[in-house]
Structure formats: C-alpha cells, structure tokens
Write a structure and sequence with these properties.
about 350 residues, alpha/beta, Isopropylmalate Dehydrogenase, 2 domains, binds nicotinamide-adenine-dinucleotide
Length: about 350
C-alpha cells in the first residue's frame, strides 16, 4: 500500500520526536511491504520563520491532499520567543486551530494506557492498577459549550454571563458512529458519558447514541453520568474500553485519564473527520525546556503513528506491531528521562527510536 503522509515536524522537540516516528514507519514499510510518501509541511513557529504566518493556504491545500498528517508539536517559550511578540492570530497556536478547522476534525481520540512496567508513575493504588489499563477517550471537538453563543450583559445592574451548550442530532450521530467504529477495533464496549439527569443536550445525546448502537449489535453500550465517570476513572479504570462524550466533558475526563497514566511523553492522540483522514500528534507540547538536548521521549509520537496506521489506513496488524515493540522496550528496561526509575537503563530520543524500530516484527 502507498501511504501519502503529511509530516509537520513543528517546533521545539517536534523535529526530534517526529524523526523517530518516521524511522519506525519506515521499518514497518520495509517489513510489511508498504511505501510511505512523505510531504513535509511547515506549521507553527517554523512557518512563521519562513512565511511570516503560522500556516499558509498552500500548506492547508497540501495537507488536504494527503491521506493523513503526522505532527510533532508547535509553539515556543511564550516569555522568550519572538513568535509571541506577534498578534494572537499570527502566533504558532493559531496555525493549529486553523488546520483543525480547515480539515473539519470533529473527533478527538486520546488513548490512556497504563503499561504494567510504568505503574510506578501512576498515582493510583497498586490493587487498582495491577495488570495496567487501556482505554480510549473519544471527545467531540467542534460543538457544545465551547462553540455555543456567549455573552456577558448587565441585567438590572447585575453582571450576568451566558454560555450555551448546543448539539444537533447530526453532530451527535457522526461522533457516535466514529466511537462505535473504533470500539469494533478494540474490546467492543462503549461507555457514553453525559448528564442526562439534568441537560436536554445530554438527553438528545443518549437517544441518538442508542439509535447508532442498534447498527452495532456486537458492541456493548452503557451510559454513565459524567460525575460518576470522574469517580470511576480513579476507582476502577480497567472497566473502560471506549469512552464517548461531548466536548467539555471530554476535555476534563481526558486530562484526568491521562494523569493516571503517568508521563506526558507516552500519550498519543488523533483528531479525525468524516473521511479516513486524521491528524496524529502527541498530547504534549513542544517542550522548549528540553528541545535540542536529544532527551525527549518519542513514544507518544510513535504511538500516534500507530494510531494513524490503524484509523486512517486500516493497517491494524502493523499498528499492533508498533504497540508490541513499545511494550517490549519497556519490558527490557529502557527508559527516557521522563519515565526513568531505579534499576532501568536511561536512553535518549534517537536510541529509543532505534530500539523500537529494532523490535518491529
Ligand atoms: P509541554 O507539554 O511542552 O511541556 C510540559 C512539560 O512536559 C515540560 O517539562 C516538558 O519538558 C515535558 N514534556 C513534554 N513532552 C515531553 C516529551 N515528549 N518527553 C519528555 N518530556 C516532555 O507544555 P508547555 O511547556 O505548557 O508548552 C510548551 C509549548 O508547547 C507552548 O508553546 C505551548 O503552546 C505548546 N503546546 C503545543 C501543543 C501542540 O502542538 N498540540 C500542545 C500543548 C502545548
């Protein structure tokens, strides 16, 4: 298969971690007989330096021409970088917001996986984390409270603020379908999270999710109220496979879930649209404090590349091979500085990439 992949190395540690993910993709191509056709795209500070803006129309068009985009991270140190002297619409982050909008990326996926070998980094008790856990948080990204009408007005001399939470059935249906599709590739369980005991938008959410579930008889659906879900994530995280939820609930729950896994350097993510297209990136930022030192953890980016193979190219076997190789390096005791613990061997970014590529079977 020929994979047409846009590559945004970005800023800070971006180029270092993306280089390792590309190394692993090349190894996959070699072993499984694919070809990767990479298009280098500039975004963020790297684009400002060349074009004066964080994202050009040409780059958007080139990204749309690819099957998927793999990204490092963008941005710099807001206190010292000249990029932050520019007006907000010209700063690095504006490029990211624009590309998400241009590509209509409405579904955000964040896996939260606790590897047994890294359970020391997890703040939960050992009896809760024994054996690790593996869940996927699927968050609606372009609707709900963050995109509703808002205003602050004075009413009878009292300042009053309004934010509106709106979802229509089509917005719910398309994310629900995505959630069930992804559950079909996993352990076939969807936990739909809402606040249906209070909110109309949640009652519609629940109704539409149930309609969609009827098309996926193999998937078990359960509904959970968001306050209960926040508790269950720390009480019994193993119960979850796919958590499907709206924008604000997903924002909060995905951060909670990622905290219980330990390091930011391990957290992959994907943003998808209605086609197979997706933007794949680590959950962390450009880490200017460690950029150029060769010590950043490339695993989140490598696991993001695995998600790309699975969700944009349906190459499940190849994605599993990457996930197994990551598990293997951890089992063998190799660690980057952010996940280092006593008795393990510390390695840099490049060596970690070499080891994972070497374990691909
Ligand atoms: P950050 O995630 O870059 O860094 C937070 C801490 O985590 C730092 O100590 C950093 O060294 C560490 N860290 C992050 N990734 C790591 C990795 N792979 N390996 C080892 N350690 C890692 O967050 P920040 O400092 O708040 O933001 C820095 C810049 O990144 C800002 O310009 C911000 O806007 C940008 N940012 C970009 C994205 C994105 O590109 N999607 C996301 C978040 C932040």
């Amino acid at each position: 298969m020929n994979l047409k992949i846009g590559v945004i190395k970005g800023d800070g540690i971006g180029p270092e971690i993306v280089t390792e993910a590309v190394k692993v993709l090349d190894k996959i191509s070699e072993i499984y007989g694919h070809t990767c056709d990479y298009t280098q795209l500039l975004m963020g500070g790297a684009s400002i330096d060349v074009h004066g803006v964080p994202l050009t129309d040409d780059t958007v068009a080139e990204a749309k021409n690819c099957d998927a985009v793999l990204m490092g991270s963008i941005g710099g140190d807001a206190k010292t970088s000249p990029w932050y002297q520019l007006e907000p619409s010209k700063r690095p982050e504006a490029g990211l917001l624009r590309i998400r909008k241009e590509l209509n990326l409405f579904a955000n996926l964040r896996p939260a996986v606790l590897y047994d070998e890294l359970k020391g980094a997890c703040p939960l008790k050992e009896e809760i984390t024994a054996g690790g856990f593996d869940m996927m948080i699927m968050r609606e990204l372009t609707g709900g409270l963050y995109f509703g009408e808002r205003k602050t007005v004075s009413e009878d001399g009292v300042m009053t603020a309004y934010d509106s939470l709106t979802y229509n059935e089509n917005e719910i249906r398309r994310i629900a379908r995505r959630g069930f599709d992804i559950a079909m590739k996993r352990r076939k369980k969807v936990t739909s999270v809402d606040k249906a005991n209070v909110l109309d938008s949640s009652r519609l959410w629940r109704k539409v999710v149930e309609e969609v579930a009827a098309d996926y008889p193999e998937v078990t659906l359960e509904h959970m109220l968001v306050d209960n879900c926040a508790m269950q994530l720390v009480k019994d995280p193993k119960q979850f496979d796919v958590i499907l939820t709206e924008n604000m609930f997903g924002d909060i729950l995905s951060d909670e879930a990622s905290m219980v896994t330990g390091s930011i350097g391990m957290l992959a993510s994907a943003s998808l649209n209605e086609t197979k297209f997706g933007l794949y990136e680590p959950s962390g930022g450009s880490a200017p404090d460690i950029a150029g030192k060769g010590i950043a953890n490339p695993i989140a980016t490598i696991l993001s590349a695995a998600m790309m193979l699975k969700f944009s190219f349906d190459l499940d076997k190849e994605a599993d091979a990457i996930e197994r190789a990551v598990a293997k390096v951890l089992e063998e005791g190799y660690r980057t500085i952010d996940i280092m613990s006593d008795g393990k061997e510390q390695v840099g970014t490049e060596k970690m990439g070499d080891l994972i590529a070497g374990y691909i079977e």
